[in-house]
């Protein structure tokens, strides 16, 4: 019989053909004997080859067999037994011994210690290919650094990604996160769950928590996102206009507009992380007149409440950004922003409150939102040229809804500044100082 065939017939635990005993021993006193064959052990394990070499003194048992002792923790006992089983079947594909990621990882640790290169290779192939649970992934990350270069392929899915690949994934996610489904959009429709997931992951990629953001918004990213912003606004304005031309199917149109408004509101949250909020604010200011001409149309005086509220929420973000100096607009555009939105806010707030009083709606303008709008408008008004402040405050005081919002603080500051400016002008004319330019800029 050929030598290879004779080796193939040798089985683990076959005492009649065994010439070596492997004693698996633990610190807790466990001592299990396994009848093995030196030829197989030497072939598949460097540790066994060293112990059975002429350079290593071995212990002779009473029945004249060599003995190799292996000491380890009790928790690794099954892994050592599986190693011996695999040594005898290493040339075959035996996946049942892996069982799961935890077991395969345990076998890999023991195989590395014993120098079983073929088993290491099989473990690595298995662990690299199968899915991991979160706790398994943590265990792999903790264990693999001590196992040497052979285990590196397992970590391929956890390696840092090339910045270009990250950018491509991010832009694709943005594409899904604000996708539309109208015929004049070249963006494909996205299921709601996919869209929500894309928005969540875009935010996660940009957030700076314990780790640095996954993505740095470079010029290429900003360019692509700006294109998305422009496209979204273009489609949104067409959707708004369709409300006037297609009043017979107003419910469907309202639903579509609300989806766009939700996307726009979401953009308000993530664009500051890319230094692109100014682009959004600029577009919203430009579109303000068209938006208001539609939702203030007489046909919608008692309708579109949810749209009006959502528009109010977006406007609040815009007013805050401009009012607190996070986005810089010219005085002319800031004045336009206040003049166009202040009447809508002071009229819509009491209407929403009254609507909720008679018929409880699933949406309402909460106090936090209103207070944020009020504070932002006050800050914005006080940064305008004094003549524009005077015009806005005079108009505000004439209305029945003067408390929506309450601009009393801005009114008081304007009165104080105006009197102080007059005093400075008077002193300047008497030759004491020349600060007449102060009054022209509202200081």
Automatic annotation (TrEMBL):
Functional summary from the UniProt entry: May act as a substrate-specific adapter of an E3 ubiquitin-protein ligase complex (CUL3-RBX1-BTB) which mediates the ubiquitination and subsequent proteasomal degradation of target proteins.
Pathway of action: Protein modification; protein ubiquitination
Name of the molecule in the record: BTB domain-containing protein
PANTHER family assigned: OS07G0668800 PROTEIN (PTHR31060:SF30), OSJNBA0011J08.25 PROTEIN-RELATED (PTHR31060)
Keywords: Ubl conjugation pathway
Tagged with keyword Zinc: no
Superkingdom in the source lineage: Eukaryota
Domain BTB: 18-96
Record InterPro entries: At3g05675-like (IPR038920), At3g05675-like_ankyrin (IPR058039), BTB/POZ_dom (IPR000210), SKP1/BTB/POZ_sf (IPR011333)
SMART domains reported in the protein's UniProt record: BTB (SM00225)
